[in-house]
Amino acid sequence: MSKKIKVAELFAGVGGFRLGLEGWNNKSATSGYEKELNSEYEVVWSNQWEPSTKAQHASIVYESRWGKLNHSNEDIASVDVTTIPDHDLLVGGFPCQDYSVATTLKNSKGLIGKKGVLWWSIHKILNEKENKPRFLFLENVDRLLISPSNQRGRDFAIILQSLNELGYAVEWRVINAAEYGLPQRRRRVFILAYHKTSEIYNQILESTPIEWILDKGTIADAFSISVENRKNYKSFKLKGDIVDISNEFNKGGNKSLFENTGIMINGEVSTIKSVPSYEGAHTILRDIILSGKVEDDFYINENELDKWIYLKGAKSHSKVNAQGFEYKYSEGSMSFPDPLEKSSRTIITGEGGKSPSRFKHVINTKEGYRRLMPVELERLNMFPDNHTKLDAILDTKRAFFMGNALVVGVIEKIGTSLQKKIDGTF
After folding, report:
1. How far apart are CA 86 and CA 84, in angstroms?
2. Would you call 141 helix, strand, or coil by DSSP?
3. Residues near 243 by beta carbon (within 8 Å), at least 6 away in sequence
4. Is the pLDDT of residue 140 over 80?
5. Domain range list for the chain
6. 422 catalytic per annotation
7. If pLDDT is split at 50, 70 and 90, which confidence band does 114 have?
8. Of 60, 77, 96, 102, which residue is the catalytic one?
9. Looking at the whole model, is its pTM more than 0.85?
């Protein structure tokens, strides 16, 4: 095996990135943890901190699976960068927040964005590390590409320019896991970055942007796409520093400049709208549910069935806001019960608990209508069965974990492609 690819995992949650890169007991998520993954990744440091709760449940689960060694359970913003081991790959699913820049790095002695915005914790590590990680692998909600509403795409432009200033090229893609046969309809943007000291950076320089996006790139190797016309893409230069971009990028624009696929190198952005190209098998909800009767608490009481049906149904009625303005509120209907012959809807953090809800999954079984079990939610994210099951962890918290998690199979596929790119470059 080649030299290990050392990984630092930020915002680790219950370890979705780690499972995708290392596998579980050297087994692959996409094989149902039956086949060898042959991974060269090794997580050498991890961090998980939940600021809104005293009990650090996600960190407890993480430590129960991988141990406390080299795992940090403290606010990442307060971590001394010198205590983080050198690593080749920095990974994490960072929250989508307001990335606007408060001041310049020179004037703020390190603070360049709003306090508590976790992107700047990533930036701090990249900026202060003497031996910078040569690769980044990040995940976020797809609205990152269109936020905020008054400067569409500004937040992503800030991230791209800050990485550009640190010497990285970047490729990105919005991927809906179900469109590539995986069990959940979960759309997320995946971001890969390559430092100028890496061979992959040079490979990008030697390719045209469209060649990398569609054929030669890491994400293209993992998840094939097509476009109507290869020439139908936008290109533009990121102008000014990150303060300029924060203030001026696409000001007043009603549409983002970023499509769902793209690349940036030396401040030059190329982006195009792509569609998935996949003809393989699909995992559907029926494939992951437990057979037979499950715990009684998960069945819906007949007396509450009407509440569930109402919440799932279409509605249109008048509301009054805090200023006294009356407006019409409407929402469409949702499937009830959830169809077993399709991939699952997106899991949300409020999936757990008995109370009727518009967004919780409900299936119809021979034994009656019921919510999904924690192990079924884990399967929808391609985690090992009962990965989050501990005596101290309630089922509602296990559901919350999965609402915050990612589809492990996406990480595995991109990680496998990245590993192939990295091999031979040490």
Report:
1. 7
2. strand
3. 101, 103, 104
4. yes
5. 5-280+407-422, 290-339+348-372
6. no
7. low
8. 96
9. yes
